[in-house]
Amino acid sequence: MRKFDGDTLLVATHNQGKLEEIQALLGPFGIAVTSAKAMNLPEPEETETTFVGNARIKAHAASQATGLPALADDSGIEIDGLDGAPGVYTADWAETPNGRDFVMAMTNTWDKLEKIDAPFPRTARFCCTFVLAWPDGHDEVFAGHMPGQIVWPMRGDQGHGYDPIFQPEGYDITFGEMDRWEKNKISHRADAFRKLVAAIER
Residues 73, 74, 139, 163: which is the catalytic one? Predict the structure, then answer.
């Protein structure tokens, strides 16, 4: 595995919340973090059908444009009763002409499970894949998962996305009911980041 030995890392995101989360994770390593948004980079079209494919598109586009190593992630939820959907299309399921509506997305997701009478527990997993890319085209991949199940009705107002209907394995509360810092310790992104740490430890 190639180690990251630079002092500046570009995070290929225009999402301020995601940037702050990754900055906090990288803080202890003394790495300066900038973002695709701060460098006025366009958002490349995500045309792949896998998390790693879309993360690669974002990481390599940012690295090639700036000459800096770049970190990108792609994430979503896979529901077994829906043959792994929505997967890479997790955010797309929430799209409306007026922006993303995750209450609508969660309601439609549950309706789909009900329509096919999916068996209980309705197992699912959140997935996150980090790709760390270098200007020479090399990359390293770090994939994380958090298994659990889809529950109804929605519970909790913490987190974002599908968190209010996802109950992580080993817990009796949803991500939507969980303290943000507790969730960040066990989440799919935390799992992927633990693997990424091996590539950035000084």
Answer: 74
